[in-house]
Amino acid sequence: MKSYKIALLPGDGIGPEVAVEAVKAVEAAGSRHGFQTEWVRYPFGAAHYNKAGEILPDSALAEMGLCDAMMLGAVGDPSVKPGILERGILLKLRFRFDQYINLRPARSYESVPCPIPLPKGVRIDSVVVRENTEDFYMGIGTTREAPSSNSEGSANPEGGVDVPFEAERGLYNLSGRLTAKFDPDCAAALQIGAITRPGVQRVTRYAFDLAKKRGEKEVVLASKANAVPFLYGFLDEETKRAAAAYPDIALKIQNVDALCYHLARNPARHGVILCPNLFGDIVSDLLSALTGGLGLGAGGNIGDGLSMFEPVHGSAPDIAGTGKANPLAAILCAAMMLDHIGESAGAKSIDEAVASYLNESDEPARPIELGGAASCRTVGDAVAQKIG
């Protein structure tokens, strides 16, 4: 019997609740398809930070790197200043393990109402391939309250800023200084985005290989070169260059605003949507809304080493401990994880169980988010029973 070591970081808010149900689904799939899992649990999140002052130590990262995959519940809590846990855990994991793909599938279900009416027999089956390490998520920038200095950089009486920066990525290390002068002096913010040829090449290959696997003839690139020509003009040209290796699959470049407009009018219009980091964050959440809500939104952070799977709904601290959380996104993440490690039959059984549960259950037996009355645990039990 095959055995897999899976890192589990339940995190904050509803993270621990939905993580339990994801584990339950994986265990049920393992029993059915002949594999077992060893879960390596980590305490990191708001409670651990508030108690120990520790976010995510390098020793834990080294241990995680020995695992076959990772499941993340959610991070973020009102007791911790916004950004500390997100940067210190989520982004740190993405960058440390060079998880350069953020994969966001979006599927509709017959029994789950779509806010945009779909023709009978038509369903949404899209996937956002989001570049996950570049663009405006590089973490390079500063804010300046004129005329005094700020903690991240220096300010001078003439209205200038001078901020050193470093960014480590799997492909390269970036370092330099951000300098600017405002005349007249004023409070301001500066943020730098970066896109590189090797970064575009590998995410483009992933998107086109996925389109080929899905039997599709087109990949849509979300861009905005007309307004941000240096960054996204470069993106367009480098994507064209990489896409030339796939003559049987067309590349369609579409402004992200027009793409969102057309998705709202015809949600089933596109299959594989390739996005830079910023736009991918937005487009994938739009598709989640169109397919039933964030409680159905699964996500994977994919790299050539440790890959991490997390629902996109966040920690939702306002409903933590109430049983109102929808665990289906976390369960669908479990299916993505199994497919990634080679247990495609187990992944399929989870996906089919979720679809069967949603399509066969009457409304009261569905998650509260979808208009039902079923608790997080009740939903997880129902799906696990259908897997087994």
Strand order of the largest sheet: 2-1-3-15-14-4-5-13-11-12
The CATH top-level class label of the largest domain: Alpha Beta
Percent in strands: 25-35%
Give the count of helical stretches: 11
| Overall number of structural domains | 3
Instruction: Name the average pLDDT.
Output: 93
The CATH architecture name of the largest domain reads: 3-Layer(aba) Sandwich
Strand tally is 15
Summarize the structure in words.
The chain is an alpha/beta fold. The protein has three domains: about 1-100 and about 300-388, 3-Layer(aba) Sandwich (Isopropylmalate Dehydrogenase); about 115-130 and about 205-290, no CATH class; about 140-195, no CATH class. It is built from eleven helices and 15 strands. The chain has helices at about 15-35, 45-50, 60-65, 85-95, 195-215, 230-245, 255-265, 275-290, 330-340, 345-360, 375-385; strands at about 1-10, 35-40, 70-75, 100-105, 125-130, 135-145, 155, 160-170, 175-180, 190-195, 220-225, 250-255, 270-275, 300, 310. The strands form three sheets. It has a ten-stranded mixed β-sheet with strand order 2-1-3-15-14-4-5-13-11-12, sandwiched between helices. A three-stranded antiparallel β-sheet has the order 7-8-9, with no helix packed on it. Strands 6-10 form a two-stranded antiparallel sheet. The radius of gyration is 22 Å and the shape is globular. The model has no long low-confidence stretch (mean pLDDT about 95).
